[in-house]
Amino acid sequence: MERTENHPIPKVESTEDVKNVYEQGQKYNNGYQLQPALDCYLQVFGYIQSLDDPESVLKYYQSDTCLHICDIYIRKGNWNKADEFYLKAKKQAEEINDKIKIARCIDRHGDIYKLKGELRKAFEDYKAALQIKKDFIGDSNYNLEIVNSFNNIGLIYYHQGNFKEALAIIQKSLDLRLKFLNKNHVDVAMSYNNLGLVYSSLGKCKMALSNFKISLEIRKQILDKNHPSLATTYNNIGTIYKEQRRYDEALKMYKDAHDIQKIHFVPNHADIATTLSNIASVHNDLKQRDKALKIYHESLQIDIEVFGENHRNIATTYSNMGSVYFNKSDYEMALRMYTKSLDTLAQCNHPADPEVAVLHGNIATVWFKSSQYKVALQESLKAIEIMKQFFDDTNIHLEQLYKIAAQCYQHLNQDDQAKAMQQKIDDIHFRYVTHRLSDDASPVLSQDSPVDVREEPEIKDDFQNLKEKEYFQAYLKALEHGSCRNTTVRVMITGPEYVGKSSIVTVFTEQELPPDSPSTHILDELDKIVNLGRYNIQDREKYDFDVIWNHHVQIMVQSNVENQSIGQYITRITGDEVTIPPLLLDHQYKFYVEPEKSNKGTTPAHEPLEIKEPSEPCRNLFKNHYYSSSDDELANFNEEKYLDGSLYAKIWDFGGQSIYHVTHQPFLSTNCIYILVFNIDRNIDDKILTREGKALTTTYWQAMQEWLTSIIGNNDDKNKYQTTVNGEVRQHSLPIFILVASHGDKITNEEEGKERFDEFQKTLTSSMKSFSSNIYSSNIIFNCNPNDKSESTLNHRKDCRNRLHNIIKAFVQSLTFMYNLIPIRWYIMATILHKPSKKDIGEIVDSAINQTASTPVHNMMKIQDVKKLAKELALYDNDKDFDAMLQYLHDLGEIVLCCNKGQDGVIVTNIDWLLRIFRAIVLPRRQQEAVLTEIAEYDDFYQSGRLSKTYVNRALSKYNLDTTTKDNIISLMESYNILCTIETKSDEDEIESNNNEDKCQYFVPYLLPPDKKKFDLSKYHVSYCLYLGYEHKDVPYIPDAIYYCLLSSCLKEWNNLEVELNYQCAKFYLTGSYHYIIVKKQVSHIAIQYCYQRTDDPKLAQLIADKRKHLITEIRPQEIIMYKLKLLIEARMSKFKTAKLRYYVQCADSGCRKLTYLDECTEILQNTILCKRCYLQTENQAVKDWITLNPDERAKDFSQIIKDPNNTNRKILVREPETLVSDEINFACIMDEIGTNWKRVARQLHIEQGKIEKIIDNNPNNVDDQCAQMLNSHIRSNADFTRLKLVNALLAAGLFYIAEKYGLCQEYKKDTADKEE
């Protein structure tokens, strides 16, 4: 209901009262105060109804009163009441034989049918009313009654999609109203508004906006500034702005409408619900999905209060909410909302009309997305059947439905049906495009139109004046010479897991953090490898790259011809007006079949492009995509805003989990800017905390090293670049990392935040000095707590956002590649290749290109096929230009370019498709419905680090890949060592019976959890470590991805399934050598050991000794591993390809214990070497084990016997007592076992009581964290903290069982008595 104040309604007790109360009702009605108006009319109606024989004048009043009551019920959406009073009004009009009143009643009945969606019945009523008026007035005369009928019939054509006929009639209606009425009349304003509706549906936003603004100006002059009709116009103008992506202006219009409505209506009024729905639609377009859903829900609650559970408006809101969920890729909720919308329409006896067809079309699209093609086809055909009851086969409203059906037929391999559907699409496209080619397109009526439009305006057919040949030549010229400056760069958000990267992206892109939700909700997106968002560098608005890049091409073509007019895009608007104020919401015919997308490119100077006779695909590409582009959009396109100095950033949010590191390589690029996020509330050497507060084994420092080394190491650019940031001139290297912090809500004051930020930055750069010129400290600390909505926090976020924007802008403007010229043909090729990006899992993309070119666009394509397509479309110049184009598109993240040596290059055009495949393979998930064998297989993945081929094929099955594509994907993943194929060896008599899938497995060591039980080496002699690596100043860290690739490479080399994996450690069995090789990851080194069986059998011992000599001197696994590591570093970390890869051993001096390298100048004297760190000559067992091994020397037990202080009768044997505790693989498990006893251990390690109390204060409620901090801090401050010292502390604390359980020592009995002293 509307907002009402106290409006006393006088009683009607006489004929004089009838007139007064009726006029009072008219005033209320004109002021949009519907309820008091209705009360007045009902008083009049009741009085006249009570009279036995009312006077004639009262009968006239009664007819008009019933008609006004009918109007009000129409506005309230009460069709039954409206119909009741229509019949009463018509009956009274017939009794007094007033033909005009009868016609008006029939018009009103048509209004009811129209608003219910029964357009044909409405048309019949309007036509009947017009005929009555003509019979009474005369066929050759016009008056305002006939003009009103023209307007009504024109709106029916508009709703039926016959826009040309609608335009002709509504234009004629306007001309006649201007003839009979003052130009500033409410009905003239109405005609201008309705013209705007038609132009908007013709895609002529400029013309639509012009008419809406004229309507607005008239209404402002004759109506109160807060009249509800102004709210209607504001809504319509807002919708045009929304179509033009002028979102700020659209929101302002909707707000103005909302403000007016709040004056006249109570908060739960239907028109307010409609305006809220329009506002929500803008937030949906801005990808602020959660905010859109919140506002839609508010709109829904209002409609439910006003109309009850079953009403068309409620169904529409459910549908709109379904669209938001669809955009969030939450297809289950989208389907639920669309179904609720259908059910609601059914409950309110809504007929099967175009709105119902739209819902079936949307449901079909959801099923299509879910790969349920049969169900999708059934729904699309149902939608088509309904639409055909209202429109002919070539109506624009059927186009998208045909597209859905065509794609379903294609996936179901029903090619003939798919072609038939495509032919219908082509017929619609031809018919519709020719109807919308110019702003001044001639309004043409069908022969059976009831409206005879005379004195039509002069027809101006601009299309006949635009010679296609002239435009095509201009297009070819643009392909040959056209170029523009590069304006786009990719910005990567990186950092450890669970630090709030996605929250910072949300704040930075000015989206709303979810209200009343824990901050962890927004981090759920980090389960994805890559999330895409876009942000404008220049003015911080979000832009549509499709529009930007298409206009690069369009404007270049336009600059080559004099005439700037080339057609229109299709747009639609909500709301219309008839002879009463309208219901604003009219369901949009929008389907979620993927739209086409434009893209981008860059190149150096090149030879002129030789274009011979253009091919048919080239001509079709021009006709379908660039010849029929929109004059309106070109006119509205702000060249200064988009093209004059603007810079754009595509935001990528990388998932931080360690399991993803190995998958990042295909997506990385050096020509990017990186933002490195850390948690200001944690110290750099603290363990990473999950959202649930659980500590991981990885520290923030390790994660930072992983990110920095992986990305910086991939760039061999040694140049320095000068940048002025915040007035400070600095030299930086590429790639640049902008350091920002999260969790600002945990910091008590600004000074504390600055100190912690500086400490973090200094620790990071001091430990990685070679990267210091790559790291820029922003001192920006984001507070992303969604529950903190205080004004100071919102202002702080805005300040952080602006500061980060200015820093990014400064660095972008310093990048030389941003000033490269990009050939226009690169943009066109990007558009073509990127069309799959919005497709789901279909391999061949349904597009105009694939209908005309012999080379179809796939999600994954061979580079040779891409080159062939480029040549077909006249977009190929030379190989150098072509290669540069692909690299540029890869740098921007528009494609993934894979060109590994020795393999045919491929590109992936649909990145989201590739990511989902990666996730399906590298993130095995136990399915609840899985059978027992699958559950066992799932559990084995995380224990063995292997995936079966059966599992991989099952994971890929839902993507409907052909054999070639599947093989290409596996090959791509193998080339980046994401997968490594290993074959199971079988006995000859078993080979034939074994299934090939069962024989083949994939090696995936990164799946292993950190808490996997360590190797049991108690029965083996284990050599000292030999280290392979670099000086810390040259390569400060070896990334996990390199290490896992090294393991895969070694496995390929030795091709032996006898490999046992642990977290960041692998044990390979070398067939025939009797030895295992252990490969462990250190910080900037790879540690290798060999181990062999312990034995007291002299013959076996001699055999093993001989094998060991052969292993070290002939097989030389250390050299194999070094060579593999060198190749990996050169291929994947080109920055370090000239760094010296060396062998290292650990200095034996207890005061040093540092790694010292071995080279050709290292002098080895009787197993002693000179340490290059402490310059002491010491005997080194690692040298003996690996370099100067004497094959005749018996194996020596490196052990020490100590006494148990708690049991003087027991002696303890400590294996390898001098081994550093930091080398222990299961050190985390030892800490877990110590648990609440950690303070006893701390005292035995001589840790001061003050430090113990500080540890408790830092971790008041978590014993595990207390223990971890105690031991980690002790190890860091004591470089010589050995196994022996830990064992002594555990023994003194009465925890011998822990040391024994994890292999640190064992009870000594008899076998080494000679070594006790």
Please report the total strand number as a whole number: 31
Q: Termini distance?
A: 99 Å
Mean pLDDT: 76
Specify the number of helices.
50
Global shape: elongated
Structure summary:
This protein has 1317 residues and is an alpha+beta fold. It has 50 helices and 31 strands. The longest helix is centred in the middle third of the chain and has 24 residues.
Features:
1317 residues, alpha+beta, eight-stranded antiparallel sheet, 50 helices, elongated, disordered C terminus
Description:
- The protein is α+β, with helices and mostly antiparallel strands.
- The chain contains 50 helices and 31 strands.
- Strands 19, 20, 21, 22, 23, 24, 25 and 26 form an eight-stranded antiparallel sheet that branches.
- The longest helix has 24 residues, at 791-814.
- The C terminus is likely disordered.
List the helices and strands and how they pair.
Blueprint: H1 15-30, H2 34-50, H3 56-76, H4 79-95, H5 99-115, H6 119-137, H7 144-160, H8 163-180, H9 186-201, H10 205-222, H11 228-243, H12 247-264, H13 270-285, H14 289-307, H15 312-327, H16 331-347, H17 354-369, H18 373-388, H19 399-411, H20 415-435, H21 462-465, H22 468-481, E1 483-485, E2 488-494, H23 501-508, E3 530-536, H24 545-558, H25 616-627, H26 631-636, H27 639-642, E4 648-654, E5 672-679, E6 687-689, E7 695-699, H28 700-712, E8 721-725, E9 728-732, E10 736-742, H29 750-767, E11 775-781, H30 791-814, E12 821-823, H31 824-833, H32 848-852, E13 860-862, H33 863-872, H34 879-891, E14 896-898, E15 906-908, H35 911-922, H36 932-944, E16 946-948, H37 949-957, H38 963-975, E17 981-983, H39 988-991, H40 996-999, E18 1000-1003, E19 1020-1022, E20 1026-1029, H41 1040-1054, E21 1059-1062, E22 1065-1070, E23 1075-1081, E24 1085-1093, H42 1098-1115, H43 1117-1132, E25 1142-1146, E26 1155-1158, E27 1168-1170, E28 1177-1179, H44 1181-1186, E29 1199-1204, E30 1207-1215, H45 1227-1234, H46 1238-1244, H47 1249-1258, H48 1263-1277, H49 1283-1292, H50 1296-1301, ...
Parallel strand pairs: 2-4, 2-5, 5-10, 10-11
Antiparallel strand pairs: 1-12, 3-4, 6-7, 8-9, 13-15, 14-15, 16-18, 17-18, 19-24, 20-24, 20-25, 21-22, 22-23, 23-24, 25-26, 27-28, 29-30, 30-31
